[in-house]
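Section 3.1: Structural characterization of target chains.
Under the original work plan, the team committed to producing a structural model for every single-chain target entering the pipeline before any wet-lab resources were allocated. The record below documents one such target. The sequence was received from the expression subgroup and is listed exactly as submitted; it comprises 604 residues.
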Amino acid sequence: MFQYRLEKHHDELRWLYMELYQNDDMFAELCSKMYEYYRQRSSKLKERDAKREQEAGWYHRKDMLGMMLYIDNFAGNMQGVKEKIPYLKECNVNCLHLMPFLDTPEGRSDGGYAVADFRKVRPDLGTMKDLAELAEKCHEEDINVCMDFVMNHTSEDHEWAKRARDGEGEYMSRYFFYDNNDVPEKYEETVSQVFPTTAPGNFTYLPDNGHYVMTTFYPYQWDLNYRNPRVFNEMMYNFLYLTNQGIDIVRIDAVPYIWKELGTTCRNLKQVHTIVRMMRMIAEIVCPSVLLLGEVVMEPEKVVPYFGTVEKPECHMLYNVTTMATTWNSIAARDIRLLKKQMDILNHLPKQYVFLNYLRCHDDIGWGLDYETLKQWGMEEIPHKRYLNDYFTGKIAGSISRGELYNDDPVTQDARFCGTTASMCGIEKAGFEQNKEAMETAVREDLMLHAYMLTQSGIPMLYSGDELGQVNDYSYKEDPAKCADSRYIHRGKLQWELAENKNDPTTVQGSIFQTLDRLEKIRRQEITFDKDADVYTYDVHDDSVLCILREYKGRRFFGIFNFSDQEKTAWMQEDGVYRNLLTSEKMELKDIRLRGYDFLWCEK
């Protein structure tokens, strides 16, 4: 079987490898090691591989639903997560994204993205054996397991980095080391900064070593040099080791940054696509049930190329980043025109392209919007960014959102935003004020946005706690290791006492949990949510109301969403009798009145 798969991909894999590295010996070593990892793969995982090779599009199913969570915040450790699988089943989750859990230095972990050892679990979370057992238990319950694979950099505490700091040439060549500032200064001329306020520049000087090292993200995260074939090979061995623990989906962190070239932006270079394509083929040879999820936080025209082509695919799935940011812009501006325009672009892409849709994740929300288009509607970039941040931090009269800024840059007046979905929708504010009417409105906004997310094509991804309407956690300010990073405001521990209310619809938690459960089951049952459905936006002649039409096998579904806090009318004159999917009531689809932040799902 290995030989069959290798022969299928060998010529292209070798051609791409030699194009980058011109090294026959290293390619031969790669193939030999791939066979080793294939042999080490368990019989259960090989059975999973064979089954999924027969149903290659299994992840396109309309019942796919993901949840991302931090292991310690959710259940303490991996054993705790295993015990909470029945709760995940209640949430209808069949794709579990475990946020970074590999060993990282305390206080210099960047939320787990500064990996000190790719083959060791953080001791307080468990062991590799615990990971394999958790994955096996998830598989028994038809839950896929996703993990982050940080390819761009290692922690400065990684063995390679320690040996490089000690001056070992072989290990220095695995990073970008320079004995003076000449080359780093040339890089700085063309490479933008990721964290201009908290970690300015792209290089860090090491006094004990007398060299500069490239650090695109934080000074303790050293960029790997993929121009060195040893780096590529070793990282692929780490990748295969982790997939052999039972990982189904590998989220490739910071994909566009992987390849560096002087005189360029060091973003989205063609060699990145070569590396991802090779990674896809390596997976298809050794572990074909494993999917690649690309984290590409870019505008649509730069994101889509990471799918590759039909003949030469790269990532199986990508994050729908632009739609997420534009969704919150639509809430603050009460204007869905940009969102509608972007959804029209996505809806015309090939149906085999799978996006992960989400309202928020572990990271901040950046306002990388299409300002050329917004400018046509009177929204200038700097004032509009300031308005968005003022709105979501609750500084504007009438705003119900609460949260904090991240990387506020006084020079560019740019900043990103942090907060849970519930707090952004007003649940925190209404709860603090004990305002019942405001709480009803906030819960309605929260549910409207989740319903809208579930209406999109692709895989919806919840963030743990959002299924219960959990609000911001300000306790991070009391932790010296976290207080400087406002992203921890929306990474709080799951409040299990709130989960006790999940079956009581008179509570905030029960209202959200029960309605989400109903929506998720409808999505699973109705054929208009099939991956092959045609999807369009539908003009209802109000810039605050988004309408999505899904058509499949003669059935028509409409999702209508009011992004305004005011009552609105969706102006439409559709023939025939429709069924409200939440209430089962029969209705005509003519000039539909919606309360502020309300929505309607109906089908004919």
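The mean pLDDT is 96.
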